[in-house]
Amino acid sequence: MLFLGNIVEIENKKQDNMLEVLNIVKENQQEAKKIINNASIEAEKIKQGLLIKSEAANEEAFLSEIDKAEKRADELQKSSSLGIDQEIKQILSKAEQQAKEIEIKAKANHEKAVNDVLDMIFNRSEKK
Question: Looking at the whole model, is its pTM more than 0.85?
Answer without folding.
Answer: no
